[in-house]
Amino acid sequence: QVQLVESGGGLVQPGGSLRLSCAASGSIFSIPVMGWYLQAPENERELVARITWGGTAYYAESVKGRFTITRDNAKKTVYLQMNSLKHEDTAVYYCNAVPSVAMFWGQGTQVTVSS
Known about the structure:
The chain is mostly beta strands. It has no helices and 10 strands. Strand 4 (about 35-40) and strand 5 form a beta hairpin.
């Protein structure tokens, strides 16, 4: 059964850093493009970073220069390094294919940026 499990979230002060991980099972990791999405309270889920199989990354303007997405194909894991975190980064973060696949949504991991 294909599954994505996100981890690494938590409470961090503004300006701090977190590293999120997305561990994939099954053949999902053969998907060419993987991404990280966030969903803030009362907002729709949005894509903030994506990465191709070969490692080319793209970012939303809101996180460019602060977030870095990487993938380790051997470990079937996608990472999101988040630096210089802001209050507005507070959200549940999910990984999925790009474009997203409904059955691949996991539980996500909560990131809260607060002083």
